[in-house]
Amino acid sequence: MLNTNLTRKEELERIAHHELGHWLMSKELGFPVGNIRVAHDNHGTPYGSSRVYPFPKKKLETVEDVNEHLLNRICVLFAGVISDIAWHKTFHSHNFDQGDIEYLLNHGPMDETGLTDKGKIEELMYVVNGIVNFPVEMVEGFEEEIKNQHKVILSEAWVKASNFIENNEDLFKMGKVLIEKIIKNNKTEFETSYLLDLQKEVAIK
Q1: Residue 42 CA from chain centroid, whole number
Q2: 122-131, pLDDT tens digit by residue?
Q3: Quick one: which H or E segment has residue 46?
Q4: Handedness of CA 198, 72, 50, 87 (dihedral sign)
Q5: Whole-angstrom Cα distance, residue 144 to residue 140?
Q6: How many CB atoms lie within 10 A of CB 84?
Q7: pLDDT, greater one: 136 or 199
Q8: At residue 1, does pLDDT exceed 70?
Q9: CA 12, CA 64: separation in Å to the nearest integer?
C-alpha cells in the first residue's frame, strides 16, 4: 500500500514535484506557464498550484482541433499525478498498483479551485467522449460501456504524459532546487522568469 503518512517536509516535496509536472508538461505542449506556489493554508494544510494557461494555440475550427486541445489539457492534468508517482517511486521505493494511482488522482494537492486533477479530467471527458464515440444507449450496462470508452481515451493521454515525464531529467533537477528554497528559505512562490531560468540552468549541468 502507498505510504500516505508523510512528514511535513515530504508532503512539501511531493507537492513541489506534482506542480512541476503540470508546469513542464504545459510548457512542452506550448501552453503559456506562470508561477508555481507551494505553501500551507490557514489550517496548516499543505497545498500547491501551478499557474498554467491552457489557451488554444490556434483557432479551434474543427472538432478534431477541439479534441486535440482537450486531450492536451488532460495530459497536463495527468502529468502532475505521474510526477507525484515518480517522486514516491524515487524517494519511497514504492511499487504502484492501480489503487495507489486512484488514490493520488483523488487526493492530489488542492489548488485555489478546490478541485482534484481527477475532477477536472472527468468534466473534460464528457466532451472528449462525445467527440470520439457515438452516444451510448441508456439501457442496462450503459455505465460500464461509457467507462470503457473513457478508459481508451484516458490511456492515450496517460501514455503521452508518462513518456514525457518519465524521461524528463528537469523534474528532479528543478525539484531539488525548489525544495531547498522551500525548506531552508521558507520560499512559497516561484515566479515564471525564475522557473524558466532554472530550467535552462539545470539543462546545462
Answers
A1: 24
A2: 999 999 999 9
A3: strand 46-52
A4: negative
A5: 9
A6: 24
A7: 199
A8: no
A9: 39
Tell me the three state secondary structure of residue 57: coil
Output phi, psi for 188, to 5 deg.
-115, -20
Rounded to whole angstroms, the Cα distance separating 194 from 177 reads 11
Cα–Cα distance, 199 to 170 (Å, whole number): 7
What phi, psi does 135 have (nearest 5°)? -55, 140
pLDDT computed for residue 111 by the predictor: 62
pLDDT surpasses 90 at 119: no
Evaluate whether 16 touches 182 at the Cβ level (below 8 Å).
yes
User: What cell does 164 get?
Assistant: 514525457
Distance between CA atoms of 83 and 106, rounded to whole angstroms? 15
Residue type, 135: P
Core vs surface per residue 131-144: b (16+ CB within 10 A) or e: ebeeeeeeeeeeee
pLDDT the model gives residue 6 = 83
Q: What is the value of pTM for the model shown? A: 0.90
